[in-house]
Amino acid sequence: MHQEVSIIIDFNSLERSASGLITGKICLSFLERSFPEENWFDSVVVVLGWWLQAAINMLENPSESQKLRFMEGPFWAAISSTKNSDYWEMSCIDGRKGVHTDLTVAVDPKAFTERLLDASEKMLKECHNRKWNDGDVDLLKEVNIRIREKIRVWS
Fold first, then answer.
1. Sheet harboring 75-81: ordered strands across?
2. pLDDT digit string (tens) for 54-67?
3. Domain extents for the chain?
Protein backbone atom coordinates (compact mmCIF):
# COMPACT_ATOMS: atom_id res chain seq x y z
CA MET A 1 0.00 0.00 0.00
CA HIS A 2 1.31 3.44 -0.94
CA GLN A 3 1.94 6.16 1.61
CA GLU A 4 1.03 9.72 0.71
CA VAL A 5 4.05 12.00 0.95
CA SER A 6 3.67 15.77 0.85
CA ILE A 7 6.26 18.48 0.45
CA ILE A 8 5.50 21.16 3.04
CA ILE A 9 6.85 24.68 2.53
CA ASP A 10 6.00 27.56 4.84
CA PHE A 11 6.02 30.47 2.40
CA ASN A 12 5.67 32.96 5.27
CA SER A 13 9.05 31.81 6.61
CA LEU A 14 10.99 32.56 3.40
CA GLU A 15 13.98 34.86 3.65
CA ARG A 16 16.69 35.93 1.27
CA SER A 17 20.18 36.44 2.66
CA ALA A 18 22.56 39.20 1.58
CA SER A 19 24.30 36.61 -0.61
CA GLY A 20 20.95 35.74 -2.26
CA LEU A 21 20.36 32.32 -0.66
CA ILE A 22 16.63 31.70 -0.22
CA THR A 23 15.83 29.87 3.00
CA GLY A 24 12.68 28.85 4.80
CA LYS A 25 10.81 25.97 6.36
CA ILE A 26 10.56 22.80 4.28
CA CYS A 27 10.00 19.15 5.13
CA LEU A 28 8.57 15.89 3.86
CA SER A 29 5.29 15.00 5.52
CA PHE A 30 3.88 11.51 6.02
CA LEU A 31 0.42 11.13 7.59
CA GLU A 32 1.39 12.11 11.15
CA ARG A 33 5.15 12.49 10.77
CA SER A 34 7.49 15.12 9.33
CA PHE A 35 11.05 14.58 8.13
CA PRO A 36 13.60 15.73 9.18
CA GLU A 37 11.15 17.54 11.46
CA GLU A 38 8.28 19.96 11.27
CA ASN A 39 9.53 23.52 10.69
CA TRP A 40 12.88 22.35 9.29
CA PHE A 41 14.76 25.45 8.10
CA ASP A 42 16.77 24.94 4.91
CA SER A 43 17.69 26.35 1.49
CA VAL A 44 14.31 25.76 -0.12
CA VAL A 45 15.12 26.60 -3.75
CA VAL A 46 18.32 24.55 -3.76
CA VAL A 47 16.68 21.56 -2.06
CA LEU A 48 13.70 21.56 -4.44
CA GLY A 49 16.09 21.66 -7.41
CA TRP A 50 18.02 18.69 -6.05
CA TRP A 51 14.82 16.73 -5.41
CA LEU A 52 13.46 17.39 -8.89
CA GLN A 53 16.75 16.24 -10.41
CA ALA A 54 16.62 13.06 -8.29
CA ALA A 55 13.06 12.39 -9.52
CA ILE A 56 14.21 12.92 -13.14
CA ASN A 57 17.06 10.47 -12.54
CA MET A 58 14.61 7.90 -11.13
CA LEU A 59 12.31 8.27 -14.11
CA GLU A 60 15.20 7.95 -16.58
CA ASN A 61 17.01 5.12 -14.80
CA PRO A 62 14.76 3.42 -12.25
CA SER A 63 17.36 0.76 -11.44
CA GLU A 64 19.52 3.33 -9.63
CA SER A 65 18.55 4.74 -6.25
CA GLN A 66 18.60 8.47 -5.56
CA LYS A 67 18.86 10.72 -2.52
CA LEU A 68 16.54 13.59 -1.71
CA ARG A 69 19.06 15.60 0.27
CA PHE A 70 18.58 18.44 2.67
CA MET A 71 21.28 21.10 2.60
CA GLU A 72 21.34 21.64 6.37
CA GLY A 73 22.23 18.64 8.47
CA PRO A 74 22.93 15.02 7.58
CA PHE A 75 19.40 14.15 6.47
CA TRP A 76 18.12 12.61 3.25
CA ALA A 77 15.38 10.39 1.89
CA ALA A 78 16.71 7.53 -0.23
CA ILE A 79 14.38 6.50 -3.03
CA SER A 80 14.63 3.30 -5.04
CA SER A 81 12.42 1.28 -7.35
CA THR A 82 10.95 -1.95 -6.15
CA LYS A 83 11.19 -5.16 -8.13
CA ASN A 84 7.76 -4.70 -9.67
CA SER A 85 8.40 -0.93 -10.20
CA ASP A 86 4.83 0.01 -9.25
CA TYR A 87 6.12 2.16 -6.44
CA TRP A 88 9.27 3.70 -5.03
CA GLU A 89 10.59 2.80 -1.64
CA MET A 90 11.47 5.90 0.37
CA SER A 91 13.70 5.60 3.42
CA CYS A 92 14.24 8.65 5.61
CA ILE A 93 17.82 8.70 6.88
CA ASP A 94 19.11 10.56 9.93
CA GLY A 95 22.87 10.77 9.45
CA ARG A 96 23.44 12.00 13.01
CA LYS A 97 22.90 8.42 14.14
CA GLY A 98 25.26 6.87 11.60
CA VAL A 99 23.15 5.81 8.66
CA HIS A 100 19.98 5.25 10.65
CA THR A 101 16.65 4.73 8.88
CA ASP A 102 13.91 6.58 10.75
CA LEU A 103 11.07 5.56 8.44
CA THR A 104 10.57 3.51 5.26
CA VAL A 105 7.44 3.79 3.14
CA ALA A 106 6.21 2.87 -0.32
CA VAL A 107 5.27 5.91 -2.42
CA ASP A 108 3.46 6.24 -5.72
CA PRO A 109 6.02 7.70 -8.17
CA LYS A 110 3.41 9.64 -10.13
CA ALA A 111 1.71 11.17 -7.09
CA PHE A 112 5.00 12.06 -5.41
CA THR A 113 6.49 13.57 -8.57
CA GLU A 114 3.36 15.63 -9.18
CA ARG A 115 3.42 16.92 -5.57
CA LEU A 116 7.08 17.79 -5.95
CA LEU A 117 6.39 19.62 -9.20
CA ASP A 118 3.49 21.48 -7.60
CA ALA A 119 5.69 22.57 -4.66
CA SER A 120 8.43 23.79 -7.00
CA GLU A 121 5.97 25.73 -9.15
CA LYS A 122 4.53 27.43 -6.06
CA MET A 123 8.07 28.27 -4.95
CA LEU A 124 8.92 29.70 -8.37
CA LYS A 125 5.76 31.81 -8.30
CA GLU A 126 6.68 33.09 -4.83
CA CYS A 127 10.20 33.98 -6.05
CA HIS A 128 8.70 35.79 -9.04
CA ASN A 129 6.28 37.73 -6.83
CA ARG A 130 9.12 38.79 -4.54
CA LYS A 131 11.39 39.58 -7.51
CA TRP A 132 13.96 37.04 -6.32
CA ASN A 133 15.95 35.82 -9.28
CA ASP A 134 19.38 34.23 -9.26
CA GLY A 135 21.22 31.15 -10.45
CA ASP A 136 19.45 28.84 -7.97
CA VAL A 137 16.03 30.06 -9.12
CA ASP A 138 17.08 29.67 -12.78
CA LEU A 139 18.25 26.12 -12.08
CA LEU A 140 14.95 25.29 -10.38
CA LYS A 141 13.12 26.64 -13.45
CA GLU A 142 15.25 24.40 -15.71
CA VAL A 143 14.63 21.17 -13.82
CA ASN A 144 10.97 22.11 -13.42
CA ILE A 145 10.64 22.27 -17.22
CA ARG A 146 12.57 19.02 -17.67
CA ILE A 147 10.44 17.05 -15.23
CA ARG A 148 7.24 18.48 -16.71
CA GLU A 149 8.36 17.03 -20.07
CA LYS A 150 9.06 13.66 -18.43
CA ILE A 151 5.64 13.37 -16.81
CA ARG A 152 3.66 14.68 -19.76
CA VAL A 153 2.98 11.06 -20.74
CA TRP A 154 1.01 10.58 -17.49
CA SER A 155 -1.66 13.09 -18.52
1. 66-69, 75-81, 88-94, 100-107
2. 999 998 888 889 99
3. 5-154
